[in-house]
Amino acid sequence: MPEVDIVPYILPAVVAGVAVFIASFLIWMVIKWHDRDISPLPDEPAFLDGLKAAKVPPGFYMWPMGENREVKSDAFKARWSAGPWGNMVVLPTAPNFARNLISTLIVYILISWAAAVVISPGIGESPTYWHVFWPASLVAGAVYCLGPMPGSFFFGKASRFMLTDFIDGLIFAAVTAGVLAALWP
User: Fold this and answer.
1) What is the signed CA dihedral for 91, 93, 97, 101, rounded to 10 degrees?
2) Which is nearest to 38 in space by CA: 171, 150, 173, 160?
3) pTM metric for this prediction
4) Chain Cα centroid distance, residue 84
5) What is the mean pLDDT of each run of 10 residues along the chain (185 residues)?
């Protein structure tokens, strides 16, 4: 495998990561097509009172849930058949949006950098914009579009939410590839 100098891809990756971050902001805060993906609880105060009364500690929860032997029991099968089914995350504190935004930006930069490093050995000397764009879009698209899917399927994310996430991924891949192609060293 050819040796890859990773340093020339840092600036394009940072710019691409910031561009994807801006695209994500526009999707969530301006276009707002995810607003229909997340529903409020019908009676949030009663639900929260129930959580507080149950003293549910922070963690990820699924229901109905049972141990290996228990899932074969008639009692568990009845709970499973009756529903409801769901999952939730209980956080230990209020979300730290500054930390979450910075973490998200770092991930976008790392994905952009990884796409550049992965495609660089096959690009060759003096590539055209499209010689960089297409492979970079495939690598970034695989991460942004396909990466979240197994968890979304397994944990029951709604089909519409999965579709809008997939469209986000296509946009993020195109932005990543476009910036990398424009700034290719």
Assistant:
1) -50
2) 160
3) 0.89
4) 26
5) 78 97 97 93 94 94 89 91 93 95 98 96 90 97 96 93 97 98 94
